[in-house]
Structures are given as C-alpha cells and as structure tokens.
Sequence to fold (130 residues):
Amino acid sequence: MNPAVNFLGELEQVTEHWSPQIVGRVNDQYVKVAKIKGEFVWHKHENEDELFYVVKGRLVMRYENGDIILNEGDFHVVPKGVMHNPQADEECWIVLVETVTTTHAGDTEAEHSKTIEEQLAGRSFEIPAR
Fold:
C-alpha cells in the first residue's frame, strides 16, 4: 500500500522554481508538485492535456487569445495541442496532473525544462517506454 502524501509538505521541500517533482502516479498519470515564479515559455503538448491546481498564490495561464487567472483552490485543464505559457508574478505553489508521456515544455526547448528522470528525483515510480 502506498503511503499518504501531503501536498504542502512536498511543496515545502521544493527549492527550485520550474522544477516539477513527481509525488504520485494514478494509472497513466503522474501527480507532480512545483513552485513557479516568473514566466515559463510558450509551448504545447500535441497529445496530452494538463491539469494545473493552485495550492498557494496566483497563476496566470496565458493563451494566444486571452488569459485564465487561477487563485488558490482553482484548477484549470490546458487542452492538448494548445499553445500556452504559465506565469506567476509572485511564487506560486501548484499541483500538476499529466500523462506519463508529457514532456515538461512540450515540443519547445526551454532553459527550465526537466526530464522525467529529473522530475522523479529518486522516487521509485516506473518510467514508461517511449
């Protein structure tokens, strides 16, 4: 049986912005925590939706045709194939739910990108074949 995971406790351990850490797996979905601040990069995920849940702070999900503002307790699903750019003026704590095949910045090279192996950070979740 898997132990209980506390999102706040996991987020308190995150020391680097834009560095998601995988804290769980549900079927073919990873559950990740991250701290973000500033602007990431415009990108899209051709085949995967992404769920962003704001634990603390405020997140602006920028789209080419307008922005979605998320406050504490809000979640938003970014549809697959849609260009987006997460942004937080102040530090924001988030939970992400993404398929195990989702790359950090989609098809875009980004300074902050982390591989799945880096996001696992010593955890024992199985990495799927690609």
The first strand starts at residue 21 and ends at 26. The beta strands are 21-26, 29-39, 50-56, 58-63, 66-71, 75-78, 84-99. The chain has a mean pLDDT of 85.
